[in-house]
Design a protein that fits this description.
By secondary structure, the first copy, chain A, is an alpha+beta fold. Helix content of chain A is 38%, strand content 18%. The first copy, chain A, has helices at residues 17-26, 33-44, 51-61, 67-79, 122-132, and strands at 49-50, 83-86, 94-97, 102-107, 113-117, 135-136, 143-146. The longest helix of chain A has 13 residues, at 67-79. Chain A binds a DNA duplex through residues 25, 28-35, 50-52, 64-69, 71-73, 91-93.
DNA sequence: GTGCTTGCAAACGTTTTGCAGACTC
DNA sequence: GAGTCTGCAAAACGTTTGCAAGCAC
């Protein structure tokens, strides 16, 4: 698979917290306490988190921060290319830093999620493009199946 | 994490309306007006439909049928292997008859959905199994990307 | 008659929105 | 001071559930 041609901005690589804050200021946004805190949490535990989980982490430090604020910030950060969300199954979407695109294999039995590099999808991507004129971007939805221990 | 007790059953091939009615009776279910009507609708327009769409189609004939009845019947029919649902993007799940398994390519721009045969995924499936010990079942979630006209 | 199925209403979990006040720049 | 961002409450959305009445067998 080629470049992850995601929506808008030619997705810049991952970055540091400070770089993100600059990015926010650059496009006219304000660096507020809850925004900075959310980013600290994200950089501190860069896995997949639902909005609810992120809220819990943020609220452990600053209980005042409201769930809807997390939703709005997460949306904003996604617009900036800092975050991505994926649907790893039923239930809430999960957000993660855009560090090296990867796809998720999620076990439909136990929910375990395995990350796989884009390279694995090169063949499928080529075929999809050739035969269906379709440019895949598998990051957004997980590929479901069964993991080794559930078979 | 919701327990997806579904699956298991070595999904029998598609069938006629009457076969499905027999199947329902076989396992002790009753053939009711709304159930038969839902099946008629499904066999008459065998595409992908959200529950809401199915309800509209059913209610065009029998307005009394309640949305929750469709939900319950669709769930039951999935248990019987007659239907499958997939998540083609954000928004509601879509149901379709289990006619020959296929995977969906969904354009994240215009929402168009393209059906692709399983054969296309053989290579990926083999790789996933070999390298990650993961048995993929891509039918449940769509592969997103951009279609020809949106690029 | 038994017990599966229905309509209804109400609740659910996730996400979005309108608003007045608070804050960043 | 202008304009962005926040907390809150409420609603929107798709889906599930408890219940009493209704229907298939």
């Amino acid at each position: 698979m080629t470049k992850s041609s995601r929506a808008a901005a030619a997705a810049p690589a991952p970055r540091s917290l400070d770089e993100v804050l600059d990015l926010i200021r650059d496009r006219g946004g304000r660096v507020t306490a809850s925004r900075r805190l959310l980013l600290e949490v994200l950089f501190a535990s860069p896995g997949h988190h639902s909005v609810e989980e992120l809220a819990k982490l943020v609220q452990a430090v600053e209980p005042e921060v409201h769930l809807s604020t997390i939703y709005r910030n997460v949306e904003e950060l996604e617009r900036l290319g800092v975050l991505e969300h994926s649907h790893l199954g039923h239930g809430p979407a999960t957000y993660h830093l855009t560090t090296g695109a990867h796809t998720h294999f999620v076990c439909e039995e136990c929910g375990t999620s395995i990350e796989a590099p884009d390279a694995l999808f090169e063949h499928l991507a080529a075929q999809a493009l050739e035969r269906y004129d379709f440019a895949i971007n598998p990051h957004h939805f997980a590929i479901v199946g069964r993991c080794a221990s559930c078979r």
